[in-house]
Design a protein that fits this description.
Length: 119
């Protein structure tokens, strides 16, 4: 996380570009889904750092996370995306009114509500 927070703007933009392109590609096979999950685990790790969370939540990554939450076919990926969004919202220095974190709450309600009904 320290390395991310100390990156120069050009390096930070390159990092974000790579992360966004990896998240935006479809999970055509289990290897692609596993790679995406590993990236999301990494984002969970760095999202607990205030400076990194603040930079990520206000970047082009956040709309891609929301899109993944809505459209990912793999439920493990959806759950991990929701966790990343949750951690970003929790650890950011300022959460703007335009950040749609309520969608994550609806996801959790749907996800856990369906789990309890099916149990």
């Amino acid at each position: 996380a320290e390395k991310l927070s100390s990156m120069k703007d050009m390096d930070w933009n390159d990092f974000l570009q790579r992360v966004c392109s990896l998240l935006d590609c479809p999970e055509k096979n289990t290897g692609a889904a596993r790679s995406k999950l590993n990236l999301l685990y990494y984002l969970c790790t760095v999202a607990v750092h205030k400076e990194v969370a603040s930079k990520l939540i206000s970047s082009q990554l956040f709309p891609i996370l929301i899109q993944q939450l809505r459209s990912a076919s793999n439920w493990d990926i959806r759950a991990k995306v929701a966790r990343v969004i949750d951690l970003l919202a929790l650890h950011t220095s300022e959460l703007g009114e335009n950040v749609p974190v309520s969608e994550v709450m609806l996801f959790f309600k749907f996800f856990f509500g369906g789990s309890f009904v099916n149990a």
